[in-house]
Write a structure and sequence with these properties.
binds zinc ion, single chain, globular, 8-stranded parallel sheet, 261 residues, 17% strand, alpha/beta
């Protein structure tokens, strides 16, 4: 049993082939993440094609902040999908990325969109899958304003080992999505962090089609490849891959309430 807690399906990928291979590789589920008009169609297609296996996350990523997208439109979309029998399992991906020399106005727009979607998650009682890059302080400030039960459902996706973010987000009750980066030679800081992290706070993810793990680095990533990430985390914890898969899948299924209809 393995669960990919953060996957994207771009317009040019074969969703059915990828999810068939994921099932064959022993996955019990995948969170298919939207993030805007570029990512939402693939996520919805995955959930329509593999109901009960692919679970939906919808939200506006930071790249859409300058468009000032409507939270009401997002809420309406979640409601109309629900009327069709498609449950939204999480808000995401959402978050902050200040790694490209964003101006103060661009940062403010990202922050406003991030906070508005965190508020929507509270309103709808949904977990969030959160991107945070070079924005540790701003991310933590926003999370600190949330009710504790929301932070227990929030996941810092593609966590790379930032010590401050780890310590403070752990204290808030958040969980961490560990990607194929943990298999990279350069990821000593991340491996050190995950080694001592409470195991009930760790989820595995691919962030496909990006970040393929070693030994597939450089190839387009897909959910089936999560086994390599699982093997690395298992070795850090001194347990078997099967045990690591079990623990991290249970964490994902608890947070995404995948048993619910
Ligand atoms: Zn992502």
């Amino acid at each position: 049993m393995l669960f990919d807690s953060h996957a994207h399906f771009l317009h040019d990928c074969d969703v059915s082939a990828q999810l068939t291979r994921a099932r064959e590789a022993g996955l019990s589920g995948v969170l298919a993440c939207g993030g805007g008009p570029d990512l939402d169609p693939g996520a919805i297609a995955a959930v329509r094609a593999f109901p009960g296996f692919a679970h939906l996350a919808l939200g506006y990523g930071r790249d859409h902040a300058h468009e000032n997208p409507s939270i009401d439109t997002l809420r309406d979309r979640i409601e109309s999908l629900a009327a069709e029998g498609i449950r939204t399992a999480a808000i995401g991906e959402i978050g902050l990325d200040f790694s490209r020399g964003e101006t103060p106005a661009e940062r403010a727009a990202q922050l406003a969109l991030f906070r508005a979607q965190l508020a929507l998650a509270v309103e709808l009682s949904l977990p969030c899958t959160i991107h945070s890059r070079e924005a540790t302080q701003e991310t933590l400030d926003a999370l600190r304003e949330l009710p504790p039960e929301q932070n227990r459902r929030n996941i810092l996706h593609c966590f790379v080992g930032d010590e401050k973010l780890a310590a403070e987000a752990l204290a808030l009750g958040c969980s961490f999505g560990i990607s194929g980066i943990i298999t990279f030679k350069s990821a000593d800081m991340l491996r050190g962090s995950v080694r001592t992290m409470p195991r009930e706070r760790v989820l595995l993810e691919t962030d496909c089609p990006w970040l393929a793990p070693v030994p597939l680095r450089g190839k387009p990533n897909e959910p089936a490849y999560i086994k390599h990430t699982c093997a690395t985390v298992a070795s850090l914890w001194g347990i078997t891959s099967e045990e690591c898969a079990e623990i991290t899948s249970e964490n994902a299924m608890r947070i995404f309430s995948t048993g619910e209809k």
